[in-house]
Specification:
By secondary structure, the chain is α/β, with parallel strands linked by helices. It has helices spanning 12-24, 35-44, 63-74, 91-97, 108-122, 124-136; strands at residues 4-8, 28-32, 51-55, 79-83, 101-103. The protein has one domain: Rossmann fold, CATH 3.40.50. α1 (12-24) links the parallel β1 and β2 (28-32). α2 packs parallel to α3 (63-74) and α5 (108-122) crosses α6. The longest helix has 15 residues, at 108-122.
Length: 137
């Protein structure tokens, strides 16, 4: 069974670049163009994602609000915040929600390695699933 990733960013370039990369690696990737769309998906979907990768600063609902809604709906799940800088929120605020923050711009290999690390830290079972996911692709 494929691992499910919820990828949220208001920049289409991020979604267009990273969605196919993670799909090729064996993930089922659900993309949302903003926080509002992501929150709607969270509350309308019954299947919990294995990981959420979200931008921090987006119009309407930001990445912290997306993660708070996901945690309310599913409980704590692995998550990464992507940011081009801390304009509206401090880094300490972000790290209260998830300890995994990656600063834009970053290379694809950096995000891939962080996703693998976050899932491996989540549980030993996830580490095996990540390996199996990569092998299946």
């Amino acid at each position: 069974m494929k691992m499910k990733m919820l990828l949220v960013d208001d920049q289409d370039g991020i979604l267009v670049l990273y969605s196919p990369i993670f799909e090729e690696m064996g993930y089922e990737v659900v993309t949302c163009n903003n926080g509002s769309e992501a929150i709607d998906w969270i509350w309308q979907n019954h299947e919990k994602p294995d990981i959420i990768v979200t931008d921090l600063d987006m119009p309407a609902f930001n990445g912290l609000q997306v993660l708070n809604q996901a945690y309310e709906r599913y409980g704590k799940i692995p998550a990464i915040i992507m940011t081009g800088g801390f304009r509206s929120h401090s880094e300490s605020e972000c790290r209260k929600i998830t300890s995994h923050v990656i600063h834009k711009p970053f290379l694809p290999d950096e995000l891939i390695a962080l996703v693998d690390k976050v899932l491996a830290e989540a549980s030993p079972r996830s580490e095996k699933a990540v390996e199996k996911n990569h092998q299946a692709a």
